[in-house]
Amino acid sequence: MNKTFTTFLIFSLSIFLFSCEKTEKIENFPMSPSKLVLNCQLNPDSVIQLLFYKSLSVLDNAPNKNITDAKVELYKDNILIASLPAANQRRRYVFEGIKPEINYTYKVVATATGYDPVWAEVAVPELVVPDKITASVSDTFAWVDYYSGDTTYNATGKVSITLTDPAKAGNYYALMLYTFYTYYGMDENGDTISFSNKVGLYNYNNSASSPLIDYILGYGYFFTDQYFNGSQVTLDVPVMSSGFTKSTTVYVELISLSEEQYLYDKSKMVFNNNNGNPFTEPIQIYTNVKNGFGIFSGINGKVQTVMFN
Amino acid sequence: MRALNSIIFLILAGSLQFISAQTFTVSGYIQDSASSEVLTGANVYDINSHKGTTSNTYGFYSFTLPKGEYSLRFSFVGYESQVSNIKLESNQVLNFHLKSMLTLQEVNITASSAENAETSSRMSNFNIPIQQIKSMPSFMGEVDILKALQLLPGVQSGNEGTSALYVRGGGPDQNLILLDDAPIYNAGHLLGFFSVFNADAIKNVELIKGGFPARYGGRLSSVVDIRMKEGNMKHINCEGSIGLISSKIMVEGPILQDKTSFIVTGRRTYIDFLASPLVQGFSGDEYSKTGLYFYDVSAKVNHIFSQRDRIYLSLYNGRDEYYNNQLPYEYLYDGVIYKEQSQSSLSWGNLTSALKWNHQYNEKLFGNLALTYSNYNYTVKDFQESIIQTDTSTQNKVYSIKYLSGIRDIAVKADFDFIPAPDHYIKFGINNAFHNFEPGVSSYKIEDENTSISDSTSGDIGIQANETSLYIEDDYMINDHLKANFGLHYSAFFVQNKLYHSLQPRLSLRYLLNNEWAVKGSFANMQQNIHLLTNSSIGLPTDLWVPSTAKISPQKSTQVAAGVSRTFSNNYLVSLEGYYKWMNHLIEYKEGASYLSNKINWEDKVTTGKGNSYGMEVLLQKKEGNTKGWVGYTLAWSNRQFAEINSGEPFPYKFDRRHDISVVLMQKLNDKWNLSADWVFGSGNAVTLATIKFPGLDEWELQTYEKRNSYRAANYHRLDISFKRTRITKWGISSWDLGMYNIYNRKNPFYYYFGYDSRGSVALKRVSLFQMIPSISYSFKFSVPKHK
User: Which residue in A147, B40, B437, B760 has the fewest CB atoms around it within 10 Å?
Assistant: First the structure.
């Protein structure tokens, strides 16, 4: 349907555009002043590390290099717990030995010469482990590559996850579904070596997937507890991928997201969808960095495995 | 309630005062002498007392005066005035037939006796004679009513070439477009580049952009009231034209002489026929067939039962269709026969009809009962079929998907005109409309070789709503200087077990400073119970009409306006108006949401907000003579604010256009040649551009904007010109129309994007759509002589 509409637009506009479409360069476009960009994702399994950049005008052809001379202060529930005068691991600002904990609010304040100071804060969400996971294959079919003649086996199936949402409202989730596909090659000595690639389990039927899923980005399924706050719920996700069949192991990663991460990913999803379409409004990429751009967010997830049957 | 009581008291007090004297009423219909078409808005004026009235939409007038002798002048734009001396000693019926100055021998109209703006209590409204619209320069040879309205002050065009109206800072969904009382929900053909109205079928067009009379409701920004012709009661007429992209024809005539008449019009484009060989040539695919076309047909029949009763039945059907078909083909590969075919289409259109019954209850009370039906829908269809045939088996696979969206209305309305005295013109009525909304439903079906069938329907469920409105208004001449049009409009919208109702006061005042200058003011509360969800500004058929629901409130507005007007020498009009409009409960897609993501309900895709607009409009018009036309200027601001857009900060509306100028000229060069030209200027639209880039968490580059609509597109301006040569032949009239759109080849902005220049650097680029476009069309008009 999307294709029909797109071809319709192209066809109809090309009738009108025929011999009268002109493109010309606009000179003297106003350039926006640069601001600090802070990117950091807090994860209880990792030490806190940040990256800084500067924002550039889209007309700027220079590569975006990291800013390594920012002064950074880290607060935990408004108490200063660490500071860094500059990047300490090449381009990264790494707070050694400090792993974020849930139920605390972390705040970063950064200053750099030539930029307005920026700050942002976030709390790491609580880990939610699925109560039950099942995966079933409904159909398999072979696909023969036209040129190589290789046969690939594809499958469709369903992954169901039952989880219990914590009592507080405003929980955000991402569900990542993938398998690993192993293939073999040879090294320079002629020895056989194996490679393992992560293969996402993509949704093949948007309208049939759980109505609870708000949006899909790659092989991540994003949803909130808006409709099941504090109660148990089961999500059914129809999936399709090459390289899986019965007895294949599926990796299920349920990640609790801070609201900031959820909104950031959602705006990125829209950005990806709209990019290059002149008839859609540009998207404002979500940021919680005051006076700047970027994202300071929290995630908390765990990977589990289950076999397709 | 207190307001309602006050209005009823005012009406009754004024009426009773007059009724106490011995009075009689002269009433009847005012019609065109050649065709018996009724004339809407014709003036009846007592030369001695300087009192008067006008005919209503159906040509009916009623004039109550004390017993005595009178000289009544009957006049109408483009018609010769006539004076009738009457002795009024009892109620009289006086039907009047005015002679048009637009005859077969004189195509160029000469307006005369137009009602001067300062005599009317109303403001912010325009009536453009259809002949004047037809004589303006056209786009690709297609005369367009809505594009003519865009040339008026306070009315802006949207994107290049489209016929959408943006009135006083409002959106295109805030215009109530009525065709013979039936609402038209999508007034655009071919992405909005042409309007759905065939000018040959239209009798009258009125635009109201403020000071709304109480009889209108349901939209915030304007009313475009379009009336179809009734059909010639005297003889058969035929009109038609052949243009570069379309042709049209109109036939009208009597079925029963002076009793029953009909009119039928039809129009179709032939871009699909012209473009198909080109498309096939470019694609190199002889099995591919792609096309895009539109057609519209309209028909109307009316029958006069008696002096008091008349019925009308009108029908309009217009449709656009895009198709991309892969014709059936088969090939043999490795001993297997493969057969494939596919069809894709996207179509949309309006179907409206109206059945109306006019009844004159007595000399002072006229009623119209109307039953209307309106259906707008669009459909996307994809169908693919493949057959794999071997010696031993046949596999068949069918895949189909369908997307449907639309709105369907059935309405009953009763309107009454009560004219108790020359100083009062009371209108009251009731309207009940049943809406059926289908915001978007998808269904798909797969049949494979094992005949396993998967069938699914999803999307938004249909919503039914009932809308009832009641109104009463009076056009009241309070004294020689002060005239008022005041009234109340009550609206009740029942949807999903929730009732939204509102009482909307309306007031227009006119104060005559002297015989030439008039000061005017108006106030109007409006409520709009339906909304248009749109991602774009080019009037795509995918724009969704949705109702207010239990979660989404109706849009509301309050508009105040004030102005002065003066007519010089009964020929030159000067008008100056200022306005301020507050709008609440506006809806807009959240950032990035669109109709295609029907995974979630449309209510979850929208955010609500508010807006305001204000400005000043100037109109200088010359109404008569060989040289006619106007200059319109608008200075305006329009802003929006939504919680989930632009970080909740206010931002300019995308068609916030600071300066808008229109110059229209119609010049009669000689008996054969007419020249018309228009020049338009608009300061640049507000555009949102992603101007900033930075790396994301995964270090891929992201682009964002800082402020919504913060970039200004280049100014828009163009000059259109048209020459018309008319020739009178033995059989009728023929004319050639040679036009040039955008004659100085201005590259006006259509949209902007970031691309790469010749050195490979990122650059902002502007795409222009229509540059200089010549057009030529041939028109003809003839009458079938009566058999003797």
Answer: A147
